[in-house]
Specification:
Blueprint: E1 8-14, E2 18-24, E3 30-36, H1 46-59, E4 74-81, H2 83-90, E5 96-101, H3 107-110, E6 132-136, E7 139-142, E8 156-159, E9 165-170, H4 174-185, E10 191-195, H5 204-215, E11 220-223, H6 224-227, H7 233-258, E12 269-273, E13 279-281, H8 293-306, E14 315-320, E15 325-330, E16 336-337, E17 340-342, E18 345-347, E19 351-352, E20 355-357, E21 363-368, E22 371-378, H9 396-402, H10 425-450, H11 462-486, E23 496-500, H12 508-514, E24 519-522, H13 529-536, E25 539-550, H14 556-576, E26 584-594, E27 601-604, H15 620-632, E28 641-652, E29 673-679, E30 682-690, E31 699-701, E32 704-707, E33 712-715, E34 720-723, E35 729-732, H16 747-771, H17 775-778, E36 783-788, E37 794-797, H18 807-819, E38 828-831, E39 843-852, E40 855-867, E41 896-900, E42 903-904, H19 906-914, H20 928-956, H21 958-991, E43 995-1001, E44 1007-1015, E45 1020-1024, H22 1040-1055, E46 1069-1072, H23 1088-1106, E47 1118-1122, E48 1127-1131, H24 1160-1166, E49 1169-1176, E50 1192-1198, E51 1202-1207, E52 1228-1232, E53 1238-1240, E54 1244-1249, E55 1254-1258, H25 1280-1284
Parallel strand pairs: 1-4, 4-12, 5-6, 5-10, 10-11, 14-23, 23-24, 30-32, 45-46
Antiparallel strand pairs: 1-2, 2-3, 7-9, 8-9, 12-13, 14-15, 15-20, 16-19, 17-18, 21-22, 24-35, 25-28, 26-27, 26-28, 29-30, 31-34, 32-33, 34-35, 36-37, 36-40, 38-39, 38-41, 39-40, 41-42, 43-44, 44-45, 47-48, 47-51, 49-50, 50-55, 51-54, 52-53, 52-55
Length: 1291
C-alpha cells in the first residue's frame, strides 16, 4: 500500500454522541480531539470538521467551514461509524420490500418463535425492517435418495455450489414478480431484499429476480445469496433485510461526507471499519457488515496495543460507555461469531464477538422490595444523570460522584439547561438523601423478618448506599466477562483487563479484583481507542461459499481446489489495492461440525500444519477436535466431520505503529491536589494526578485518581499504577481488604448474591448447551438448570423453560426424602417419574448433591432437566397422543443412581432406557447414543454448578452463603406479598371482595377450576383448585409439580419486575389440589400431555382469575414424526393474548414454553419433509380494543412413509377474550391425502402417512382485550404489522 509520509493521516470514530479523531501529523507527532457528532449550528459533518480543525491548527492556513476541504495534504482517512447502528436502533433505514418464497411471507416475523423476555406478558419485539412483502412463485428443494414422492411430471435437476443436487419444484414466475415489483415501486419503495429458500447453494432464481429489479430501476437490490451464502433461511433473511435497509443510508452519508472535500476525496485512500474488525474501501462499505463498525475499532485498538505475542496472555476488552458496557476477548486471534442479534435483528455475517450488558455510567439506580437494582433502564444523554442538572434520575455516574470518585472541577462546564454549568454534586446528594430515607425506612419496618437474630439493623449512610450501587453494577458487568471466558473453557483470572471508554476507568480495579485478574491496562488513548484502533487495523477482504463435503481423504482434492480458488481471489483483490505479496496474509477457515449435530465451529489450522491425512492447507481435523474438546469437554469419535462452509480471509497489513513514547527521568510524581474518596466503609485521602504530568518511571500507590482529557482512572487501595514506555497506564491489582460478611441481611450483598446465584444457574445452562449433542437441547434449548438449598428449596433458576420452574424443586425434595442421608460425594441421581416431581417422562432430571469438607450432609444441590427426543414407548419421539398409562410413554426413573462414586453407570442406564420394550406395543429408546451423550452433558453441567457453589462458599463461608440463600428467598417472598397486597387493595376498592375465581376447560370438557382467597394484611393467598375435573383416560393428567410451575410463573409475571426466582415466590401461597384430579393424578397415570397442554390451561385460569390479560393460544402444538430409526419433534407457536395496553403478538411461543423452531432449510436437509408454508394465520387473533395475536399456519409434506403424532389442545375450546374482547380462533389439524381427501385429525392422533401426504397445522390465536366501541382517536387498530400480513389462507 502506498506510503503517506509527509501528509496528514486521519482515523475517525463517529459515534452517536461524540466523534473521536486521531491524526498522525507529517512530522510523526500524534494529535487527538473529541467533538460532538451533531452540532448543526457550527458544522454540517463532525468528521469533516475534525479534519478541518487539525489541518488549520497544524498548517496555520485557513480552511473555511463553508468551502470544501483541500485534500492535497491528506494521505488517508479511516472511519468507523454508528450510522448503520443508529439507523437500525431507531428504525430510520430505507423503505424496503422483502421478496420471499411463496408461503413464507411471515417467516422473519415469526423468526425462531421464542420470546425475548420470559416473564413479560406484553411480548415486545422489534419491528421487521420491511414494510411490504412480495411472495415469489418459485420453489427448489434438496434431492433425497430416499424420497418416494409420487411424480406427475419430471422436475428440472440442478447442482448447487455445495455440490448438492436440487429439484426445481416450481419454476420462477418472473412475469408475476414484475407486476408485484411495479406495485411496490409505485408506493415509493426503492430498496429490495430477496430471500429464496436454498439460495445459499443455488442462486439462479435470486439472480434473475435481482436482474429484473435493477432493470426496473430499484436503487438497492440485496440478494441473500450474495450478502451471506450460509444455510439457515431466517438469519440469512434478517441479514439481507438489514443490508437492503441500511446500505442506502450509508451511501447517503458517504455522499454527504465526500461532498465536504475538494474533488470528492478523489486520490485519497478512504477506508471504513467493518463489523469483523477489518477495513474495506469506502465504495464497498455495506449495511450488513457495518453494524459493529464503531465498537470493532476499539477491539482492534486494545488487541494490537495490549496483547503481547511473546507472553501470550489473553486480554478482556472492557468498554464502558453511558448506557451499556461491551466486553470482548483477544488471545492472538480475533474471535468472530457468524450469528449475533443486534437491535433485535439476527445478523448472519462475520462480526467480532462483542457481548453487551445494559450497565453503563447512565444506568439508573433503583431500590425494589429490598433489592439494589442497577439498570437496564438508562438516563440517556437527555436528561442524563441527576448531576447533569436537567432533572434526570440517579445513575451509576451519580454514585461515583457521591463517593468523590469524579471531580467536577476537571469537567467542562457544559451541563444544565444552558449547557454552561458544572456537574452538580448538590443535585446528586439531594437525590441520594431522599433514596437513603426510603431505604432506611424499609429496613426499619422489615428488620424482624429479615434479621435472623432479631438484632437492630444499623441505618445506612448516603455513602453506604452509593457504594452498594457501585458494587452491584460491578457484579452485573462481571457476569458477561465470566460467560465470555468460563463458558468457553478459559480461566478468567489468567486474563488482562484492557479498559477503555469514558466510564470504565472508575470501575476497572474493582472488576479485575472480583474476577481474580492481576493486571489492568489502560491505553494512553483509551478515551478515543476506537479511533486509534482504526489507524492500527488491516484492510480485509473475505470470501465465503457454502459446502457440503465430508472432511475425509476422498474430499481433500476438491477442498484444496476450492480453497486455492478463493485464496487467489482475495490475493488479487488486495494486490489491486496496492499491497505487495509481503504485506498480504491469507487465512483459511472451514466451518466444521459433526454429522447429525447443529453446532458448527469456524476452524483455522494455523497451528496445525498439513500431513498425509489432511488437506494441503492444514490439519483441520486435529484443530477441530482440540477446539471441540476445549469448548465442549468431549468429542464424538465415531461420527464423520462435515464441512458447511469454506471461508478465506485476506489481510493487507497497513496499520501504523505509534512512535511517540512517554518522557522519562522525572522525580517522584507530585499530585496536583488531595481529595477524599469513599472506599467500602470509610473515606480515604486520595492523591489526584494529571496523566500528562506522569513519566514512564513513575509508580502511583492507590488510592489515587489519574485524570486526562477524556477519562478518569481510579486506582483503588492496594493497587499500584505505573506508566509504560509508550505512555500507557498499567495497574497491578492487589487483593484489597477482605471485609468479613456476617449472616445478617445486608441489602447490598443481597443484590450481589442474587447475581452470583443466578450466574451459577446460567453457567450451568451454557455448559449443558455446549456439551449436549441433541437438537432438542443444543438448538431448541429445551432444558433448565437450577440451584437448590440443603432442604431442596429452589434458590435460583435461570430463565430457561417456565414449565420446569417449580417442578424441579419437587424432584429434589423427593430425592432428599428417598435417600434418607445415604447420598455420598460422587453420587448423581436421575429421575423423571411424576410421583417424584417429574413433569413428563422425556424430561430427564439429573441431580447432584454439593458436599463440603467437615459436613456429612449435602450443603446444596444442583440440577438440570433436559427434554430427550426419545426414551422409548409406543411412538417415536415418546410423545404419544393416546397413551393411557405411564409405561406407554417411555423409560421411567424414580431414584436412579446415574453416577456412583464418580463412575457413570452406562450399562445400568442403558438397560433402563431399553426396558420399555418389555411392554406390549412399546419400544426401548430409539436414540440411545444421544440419550447417553445428553445425560453426560447434564452431569457435566451439574459438575460446573458444584464447582461454582464451592467457590462461592470458599469466598464467603458456608454459613454466610446459606444465610444469603435464605435472604434471597425471603426477598422473593416479599415481592410476591407486595404484589398480592396491591392486588387485594385494588380488588377490595373495586368489588368489596378479596376473593376471585375462574374456570376453563380442556377440549374433552374437563374443568380446571380455581378460587383464590387473598389476605390483604399479610399479602398471602390460598389457591384452591377444588372442583377441578377428575383424572382422565388419556395423557392430559398433570402432576402436582406442573401446577406449582404454572403458579410460580404467573406470580413472577404479575410481580412485574426482575426478582430472584426461587421457592420464596410460593411462600405466601397455600395450594389446594384435590387428589385424584387431573392436577394430581394417580401414580401410573399417563402424563405426557399434562406437561405441554394442561400446564397452559392452568396459566389461563390463573390469569383469568386475576384479570391480567386475555388467554394466549393455550397449547404448545406438539408435532412429531419419524420411524423406528429416527424421529423429529417440535412445538409450534401461536397467538399471545392481548392486555390492558397492548396487542397480542402473533407467531410466538407463550407462557409455559419458549423453545425455538428448526429453520426451514435445516428441516428440509435433515428430514424427509417439505415445508410448504409457514406464516401467520390471518384474523385468528380475537378482536377488541387490543387485538389478540394471530396463530400460524404450518404445512408439512412428507417425502417417505412416516408415523405422525399430534398432541394439541384448544381445538374445540377457544382462547378467551377479556373485558369485552373477542375469543381467539381455535386450532385445527388437517391431513391432505394424495387422493385429494382432506381429513380433520382432531386434537390428538397418531397416524401412518404415505409419501405425498401433507399435514396442515393451524394454531390458535390469542384472545382480544376490551370492547371495540371503546376505541378512540389514540388507538389505531388493526396495527401496522397486522395490516402487513393480511392475505389469503384464512381458516
Amino acid at each position: 500500500m502506498a506510503e503517506t509520509k509527509g501528509k496528514f493521516d486521519f482515523a475517525i470514530d463517529r459515534g452517536g454522541t461524540f466523534t473521536d479523531v486521531f491524526a498522525r501529523l507529517p512530522d510523526g507527532r500524534e494529535k487527538v480531539l473529541k467533538l460532538l457528532s451533531h452540532d448543526p449550528q457550527n458544522y454540517k459533518d463532525a468528521p469533516t470538521e475534525g479534519i478541518r480543525r487539525v489541518l488549520e491548527e497544524e498548517t496555520g492556513k485557513s480552511f473555511p467551514r463553508d468551502q470544501p476541504v483541500d485534500t492535497s495534504q491528506i494521505g488517508w482517512i479511516r472511519m468507523g461509524t454508528t450510522v448503520a447502528t443508529n439507523a437500525l436502533l431507531e428504525r430510520q433505514g430505507e423503505r424496503t420490500a422483502l421478496l420471499v418464497t411463496s408461503g413464507f411471507k411471515d417467516l422473519l416475523h415469526i423468526g425462531t418463535q421464542a420470546r425475548p423476555n420470559l416473564f413479560d406478558l406484553e411480548v415486545c419485539m422489534p419491528d421487521v425492517l420491511y414494510e411490504e412483502v412480495i411472495e415469489v412463485e418459485e420453489r427448489v428443494i434438496l434431492r433425497q435418495d430416499s424420497c418416494q414422492l409420487p411424480r406427475n411430471e419430471p422436475k428440472r435437476i440442478v447442482t448447487g455450489s455445495t455440490g448438492e443436487s436440487l429439484e426445481v419444484w416450481r419454476e420462477l414466475d418472473l412475469q408475476r414478480v414484475e407486476q408485484d415489483l411495479r406495485r411496490v415501486q409505485s408506493k415509493g419503495i426503492r430498496s429490495l431484499a430477496v430471500l429464496l429458500l436454498h439460495s445459499y447453494t443455488w442462486a439462479a432464481h435470486e439472480k434473475a429476480v435481482g436482474s429484473l429489479a435493477k432493470r426496473l430501476g430499484f436503487a438497492q437490490v440485496s440478494l441473500s445469496s450474495e450478502v451471506m451464502p450460509m444455510v439457515r433461511a431466517v438469519p440469512r433473511g434478517y441479514t439481507v433485510c438489514a443490508d437492503a435497509y441500511l446500505t442506502p443510508k450509508i451511501h447517503l452519508y458517504l455522499t454527504k461526507f465526500t461532498a465536504g472535500f475538494k474533488g470528492g476525496l478523489k486520490g485519497v485512500d478512504v477506508l471504513f471499519m467493518q463489523s469483523d474488525g477489518g477495513l474495506t474501501p469506502m465504495e464497498q462499505f455495506c449495511g450488513s457488515r457495518a453494524v459493529l463498525s464503531g465498537p470493532a475499532g476499539g477491539v482492534v485498538g486494545y488487541a494490537v496495543t495490549c496483547y503481547k505475542s511473546t507472553e501470550k496472555k489473553p486480554v478482556i476488552g472492557f468498554d464502558m460507555g453511558g448506557t451499556s458496557t461491551d466486553v470482548s476477548r483477544y488471545a492472538g486471534q480475533y474471535e468472530h461469531v457468524f450469528e449475533a442479534t443486534i437491535a433485535g435483528i439476527t445478523l448472519q455475517a462475520p462480526q467480532l464477538d462483542i457481548n453487551t450488558v445494559a450497565a453503563g455510567g447512565g444506568s439508573r439506580l433503583f431500590f425494589r422490595s429490598g433489592m439494589f437494582v442497577v439498570g437496564p433502564e438508562s438516563a440517556g444523554a437527555h436528561p442524563g444523570p441527576a448531576c447533569y442538572r436537567k432533572g434526570g434520575p440517579l445513575t451509576v455516574t451519580d454514585a461515583n460522584l457521591a463517593l468523590g470518585r469524579l471531580l467536577p472541577s476537571f469537567f467542562p462546564k457544559i451541563f444544565g439547561p444552558g449547557e454552561n454549568e458544572p456537574l452538580s454534586t448538590e443535585e446528586t446528594m439531594k437525590h441520594f438523601s431522599k433514596l437513603t430515607q426510603e431505604i432506611n425506612h424499609f429496613l426499619s419496618t422489615n428488620q424482624t423478618s429479615n434479621s435472623a437474630s432479631g438484632a437492630q439493623l444499623s441505618k445506612m449512610s448516603i455513602e453506604d448506599i452509593a457504594m452498594g450501587f457501585i458494587n452491584v453494577a460491578n457484579e452485573a458487568m462481571c457476569r458477561p466477562i465470566r460467560a465470555l471466558t468460563q463458558a468457553k473453557g478459559h480461566d478468567t483470572s489468567e486474563h488482562v483487563l484492557a479498559c477503555f471508554g469514558g466510564a470504565g476507568g472508575q470501575h476497572a480495579c474493582a472488576i479485575a479484583r472480583a474476577l481474580g485478574m492481576k493486571m489492568v491496562f489502560i491505553h494512553k488513548y483509551s478515551g478515543v481507542l476506537s479511533a486509534y484502533g482504526l489507524a492500527l487495523a488491516d484492510v480485509v477482504e473475505e470470501v465465503q461459499e457454502p459446502c457440503s463435503l465430508q472432511y475425509e481423504a476422498g474430499s481433500f482434492s476438491e477442498l484444496d481446489r476450492r480453497i486455492e480458488q478463493l485464496s487467489q481471489r482475495c490475493d488479487e483483490i488486495l494486490r489491486k489495492r496496492g499491497f505487495s505479496r509481503s504485506q498480504i496474509n491469507i487465512e483459511v477457515f472451514l466451518h466444521l461440525r459433526y454429522e447429525g449435530t447443529d453446532c458448527a465451529l469456524m476452524i483455522t489450522a494455523t497451528d496445525h500444519p498439513s500431513n498425509a491425512s489432511s488437506c494441503r492447507t492444514g490439519d483441520f481435523r486435529t484443530a477441530f477436535t482440540k477446539r471441540y474438546l476445549k469448548e465442549f469437554g468431549f468429542t464424538i469419535t465415531d461420527r464423520p466431520i462435515m464441512v458447511d462452509d469454506i471461508r478465506v480471509r485476506g489481510s493487507g497489513k497497513s496499520g501504523i505503529r505509534s512512535e511517540v513514547q512517554a518522557k522519562a527521568g522525572q522525580k517522584s510524581p507530585n499530585p496536583i491536589k488531595m481529595t477524599q474518596c469513599y472506599f467500602e466503609d470509610r473515606y480515604l485521602d486520595t492523591s489526584v494526578y494529571l496523566w500528562e504530568d506522569l513519566s514512564c518511571d513513575h509508580s502511583i500507590q492507590g488510592p489515587a485518581i489519574i485524570i486526562d482529557k477524556n477519562s478518569t482512572i481510579l486506582v483503588e487501595p492496594t493497587c499500584v499504577a505505573h506508566l509504560t514506555e509508550d505512555g500507557d497506564v498499567c495497574i497491578a491489582v492487589g487483593m484489597g481488604t477482605q471485609c468479613v460478611l456476617g449472616t445478617e441481611l445486608n441489602t447490598i450483598q443481597l443484590s450481589i448474591f442474587s447475581h452470583r446465584f443466578m450466574s451459577i444457574a446460567e453457567q450451568m445452562g451454557r455448559v449443558l448447551q455446549r456439551t449436549a449433542i441433541s437438537t432438542n437441547i443444543k438448538e431448541r434449548l429445551d432444558f433448565s438448570c437450577a440451584v437448590f438449598g440443603p432442604d431442596g428449596g429452589l434458590v435460583s433458576n435461570a430463565p430457561h423453560i417456565p414449565v420446569h420452574l417449580g417442578a424441579m424443586q419437587e424432584t429434589v425434595q423427593f430425592q432428599i426424602k428417598a435417600a434418607g442421608g445415604s447420598l455420598k460425594e460422587g453420587d448423581v441421581i436421575l429421575s423423571n417419574h411424576p410421583c417424584a416431581g417429574g413433569s413428563h417422562l422425556p424430561d430427564l432430571t439429573v441431580i447432584t448433591p454439593v458436599f463440603r469438607d467437615g459436613v456429612s450432609a449435602p450443603v446444596f444441590f444442583v440440577a438440570s432437566r433436559g427434554h430427550h427426543a426419545d426414551i422409548g414407548g409406543i411412538t417415536p419421539g415418546s410423545m404419544p397422543p393416546h397413551s393411557t398409562s405411564l409405561q406407554q410413554e417411555g423409560a421411567v426413573f424414580t431414584s436412579f443412581k446415574l453416577v456412583t462414586g464418580g463412575i457413570f453407570q452406562e450399562k445400568a442406564v442403558t438397560e433402563a432406557l431399553m426396558a420399555p420394550a418389555q411392554y406390549p406395543g412399546c419400544s426401548g429408546t430409539r436414540n440411545l447414543r444421544d440419550n447417553l451423550s445428553d445425560l453426560r452433558a447434564q452431569v457435566a453441567a451439574n459438575q460446573r454448578g458444584c464447582q461454582l457453589v464451592g467457590e462461592l462458599i470458599t469466598s464467603y463461608g458456608l454459613d454466610v452463603v446459606q444465610a444469603y440463600m435464605g435472604h434471597i428467598q425471603s426477598n422473593a417472598e416479599l415481592a410476591v406479598r407486595d404484589m398480592l397486597k396491591d392486588f387485594a387493595h385494588r380488588q377490595r376498592e373495586k368489588t368489596g371482595s378479596l376473593e376471585v375465581e375462574a374456570e376453563d376447560q380442556m377440549d374433552d370438557g374437563t374443568l380446571i377450576r380455581l378460587k383464590v382467597q387473598i389476605n390483604e394484611e399479610q399479602g398471602s393467598a390460598v389457591f384452591d383448585f377444588t372442583g377441578t375435573g377428575t383424572e382422565v383416560w388419556g395423557n392430559c393428567n398433570a402432576p402436582r409439580a406442573i401446577t406449582l410451575s404454572a403458579l410460580i410463573y404467573c406470580l413472577r409475571c404479575m410481580v412485574g419486575q426482575d426478582i430472584p426466582l426461587n421457592q420464596g415466590c410460593l411462600a405466601p401461597v397455600k395450594v389446594i389440589i384435590p387428589p385424584g384430579s387431573i392436577l394430581q393424578p394417580s401414580q401410573n397415570a399417563a402424563v405426557v400431555g399434562g406437561n405441554v397442554l394442561t400446564s397452559q390451561r392452568v396459566v389461563d385460569v390463573i390469569f383469568k382469575a386475576f384479570q391480567v390479560c386475555a388467554a394466549s393460544q393455550g397449547c404448545m402444538n406438539n408435532v412429531s414424526f419419524g420411524c423406528e430409526k429416527s424421529g423429529y419433534y417440535e412445538t409450534v407457536a401461536g397467538g399471545a393474548g392481548a392486555g390492558p395496553s397492548w396487542n397480542g403478538r402473533g407467531g410466538i411461543h407463550t407462557h409455559m414454553t419458549n423453545t425455538r423452531i428448526t429453520d426451514p432449510e435445516i428441516l428440509e436437509s435433515r428430514y424427509p419433509v417439505i415445508l410448504e408454508q409457514f406464516s401467520l394465520r390471518p384474523d385468528s387473533g380475537g378482536a377488541g380494543l387490543y387485538r389478540g395475536g394471530d396463530g400460524v399456519i404450518r404445512k408439512l409434506r412428507f417425502r417417505s412413509p412416516v408415523v405422525l403424532s399430534v398432541l394439541t389442545e384448544r381445538r374445540s375450546t377457544k382462547p378467551y377474550g377479556l373485558h369485552g374482547g373477542k375469543n381467539g380462533a381455535p386450532g385445527l389439524n388437517l391431513l391432505h391425502k394424495t387422493d385429494g381427501r382432506v381429513l380433520n385429525l382432531g386434537a390428538k392422533t397418531t397416524i401412518s402417512l404415505d409419501p405425498g401426504d401433507m399435514f396442515s397445522l393451524f394454531t390458535p390465536g390469542g384472545g382480544g382485550y376490551g370492547r371495540m366501541d371503546e376505541l378512540d382517536g389514540d388507538h389505531h387498530l388493526p396495527s401496522k404489522r397486522r395490516c402487513l400480513h393480511e392475505s389469503q389462507n384464512k381458516v
